[in-house]
């Protein structure tokens, strides 16, 4: 299973191609678009989100509501493009920097300067257009399909916000369906009403001060069979793959599985999850501090993964930088921006994690059709039961 995305933030559309999906996966288009719309919400998002109403249009690999086994191609239109048709024209346009909206003042915290130097681009717009987090709309669309595949086999994915700035929500401790329902009603995707109030106030304050704020998000996956991923090779460890996927989300600076960095401050006797057995449940754990993984494989407990997002670097408050033409210092100009995109990032995280789990699931139970995968899964579950 693999995918690629293409497209610029102010271009006509985002495009994704998914290769390796089985046939006969019935797609729920409404559910797919619901995930895209979830990503657009959240207290602290900027004006661009009022322009966009993201929907995915499937343009390959699906017929009469089902995958055929062919690559699935999808596009997400940028409604804002109509304001950028000349700036983002594919063919050369007349006029100088003004008409091209050339960017020559790199913004600290963005890809602008590194990308400009690396690709030898004197118009930093060629970097920022692609490095924009707009691209995560395509990744959510792709992940929403992975999520539907997992859903057929009883695997569920939830995401929620753990903290924004210094405000931390109380651990929700809810069954997954309830967690999904409760956090969906929250403008900052938390189940804790007191923290919700403090977080929205903090975001408002940051916005008023021309500043931005980051936070920590958590993703939980339930209903997993034991043994997704493998200990035998470094690049088959599923926790490692999930970490890479989470780190690849724009502005993410760290990942934790289970208790994560806390494990370095805690004695072993209080870290490891003791092994239990009962007739009904088979092997299970007395706790889930390791976040569902041992040896890079799922152990049957829910996957728990957290990621930290830095504050968005586009600030109304100027930061020092250097003009690439004159090499003179300047303070960055005001740009349209989000004050906080942490709630949206939690939706993105759900989808990149769903993708990695689906990939490992297909590696384990791989088949060309949903029916073949089901048969492989059933046979494996019988083997585990008889172990
Ligand atoms: C982004 C900047 C803003 C955000 C954008 C990501 O866009 P603009 O520069 O057009 O105001 O709105 O996010 C999205 C469009 C989205 O769909 O998430 C950036 O620089 O990363």
Automatic annotation (TrEMBL):
Query: What domain of life is recorded for the organism?
Result: Bacteria
Q: Which cofactor does it need?
A: FMNH2
Q: In which pathway does it act?
A: Metabolic intermediate biosynthesis; chorismate biosynthesis; chorismate from D-erythrose 4-phosphate and phosphoenolpyruvate: step 7/7
Q: What is its EC number?
A: 4.2.3.5
Catalytic function, reaction form: 5-O-(1-carboxyvinyl)-3-phosphoshikimate = chorismate + phosphate
Alphabetically sorted, this entry's keywords are: Amino-acid biosynthesis, Aromatic amino acid biosynthesis, FAD, Flavoprotein, FMN, Lyase, NADP
Positions annotated to bind FMN: 130-132, 250-251, 295, 310-314, 336
**Family listed:** Belongs to the chorismate synthase family.
PANTHER family tied to this protein: CHORISMATE SYNTHASE
* Protein name (database record): Chorismate synthase
Q: What is the native source organism of this protein?
A: Cohnella endophytica
Gene from which the chain derives: aroC
């Amino acid at each position: 299973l693999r995918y690629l995305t293409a497209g610029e933030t102010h271009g006509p559309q985002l495009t994704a191609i998914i290769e390796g999906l089985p046939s006969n996966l019935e797609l729920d288009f409404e559910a797919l678009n619901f995930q895209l719309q979830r990503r657009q919400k959240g207290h602290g998002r900027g004006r661009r989100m009022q322009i966009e109403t993201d929907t995915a249009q499937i343009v390959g690999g699906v017929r009469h509501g089902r995958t055929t086994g062919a690559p699935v191609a999808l596009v997400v239109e940028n409604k804002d493009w109509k304001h950028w048709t000349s700036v983002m024209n594919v063919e050369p346009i007349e006029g100088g920097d003004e008409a091209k909206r050339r960017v020559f003042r790199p913004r600290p915290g963005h890809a602008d300067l590194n990308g400009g130097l690396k690709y030898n681009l004197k118009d930093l717009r060629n970097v920022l257009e692609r490095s924009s987090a707009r691209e995560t709309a395509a990744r959510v669309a792709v992940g929403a399909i992975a999520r539907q595949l997992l859903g057929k086999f009883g695997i569920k994915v939830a995401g929620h916000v753990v903290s924004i700035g210094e405000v931390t929500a109380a651990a929700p401790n809810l069954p997954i369906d309830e967690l999904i329902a409760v956090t969906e009603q929250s403008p900052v995707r938390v189940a804790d009403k007191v923290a919700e109030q403090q977080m929205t106030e903090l975001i408002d304050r940051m916005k008023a001060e021309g500043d931005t704020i980051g936070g920590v998000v958590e993703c939980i996956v339930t209903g997993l069979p034991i043994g997704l991923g493998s200990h035998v090779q470094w690049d088959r460890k599923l926790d490692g793959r999930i970490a890479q996927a989470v780190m690849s989300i724009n502005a993410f600076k760290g990942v934790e599985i289970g208790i994560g960095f806390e494990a370095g401050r805690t004695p072993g006797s209080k870290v490891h999850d003791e092994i239990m057995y009962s007739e009904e449940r088979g092997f299970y754990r007395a706790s889930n501090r390791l976040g569902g993984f041992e040896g890079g494989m799922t152990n049957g407990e829910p996957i728990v993964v957290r990621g930290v997002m830095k504050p968005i670097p586009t600030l109304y408050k100027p930061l020092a930088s250097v003009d690439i033409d004159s090499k003179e210092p300047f303070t960055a100009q005001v740009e349209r921006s989000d004050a906080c995109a942490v709630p949206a990032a939690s939706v993105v995280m759900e989808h990149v994690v769903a993708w990695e789990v689906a990939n490992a699931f297909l590696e384990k139970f791989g088949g060309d059709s949903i029916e073949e995968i089901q048969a492989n899964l059933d046979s494996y579950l019988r083997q585990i039961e008889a172990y």
